[in-house]
Amino acid sequence: MDTELWYNASDVYEAWRLLLNASTKLGSSPTFRYDLVDVTRQAAQQLVSDYYLDIRSAFQRHALPELLTAGGVLVYDLLPELDSLLSSHSLFLLGRWLESARAMATSDREAEQYELNARNQVTLWGPNGNILDYANKQLGGLVLDYYGVRWSLFVSVLVESLSSGRPFHQDQFNQIVFQVERGFIYNKKRYPAVPAGDTLEISRKLFLKYYPSALRRSRAGPV
């Protein structure tokens, strides 16, 4: 996974802090709330990259406890929190994306096909992952049920590799994870098209939990 950034990661964290500081005056503005979700989303994505580096380092050093810790935070805390944030705003909903596709149909059969295409576009982009993640999106529902499942599988395979002493094979993992990706395309699960939760509250919770260590890490630079 490429974790290189063309910008200063700490600038995003600072923008996040400033936005939350302005929430008392601007919190009722729909435009402000959109920006808050978007900046928080980007900060969380940077954190995902950080935890990936921790996971990779722990695996390479055969440090199973550290791998379990970093993987556990990523899979069971950060990604669910990010999904909740995205689900709190109507413009970051997978359900809205899917419903907009279905609305173009003239029959139930066509609606099913349009939804399948909409799912495919933001994930595999082709029947066999021809351009995997080419048009990937961070949407409420998609982060938890697609990316979260992939990350969980990845961490589990690495843990099993260290526990058993068997090497990790990328090609084998790709075959396994493809079944998860393809399964999402066809699972027909319905997703809400109406937001839930308070954007400010969720963003603030993420900030208090992750901002101090994230800022220190971004200023320290890559290890």
TrEMBL record:
Annotated ranges, domain Alpha-N-acetylglucosaminidase C-terminal? 3-209
Q: Which Pfam families does this one have?
A: NAGLU_C (PF12972)
Give the matching Gene3D superfamilies: N-acetyl-b-d-glucoasminidase
Q: Which residues form a coiled coil?
A: none
Q: Which InterPro entries match?
A: NAGLU (IPR007781), NAGLU_C (IPR024732)
Protein name according to UniProt: ANAG acetylglucosaminidase
Encoding gene, per UniProt annotation: Naglu
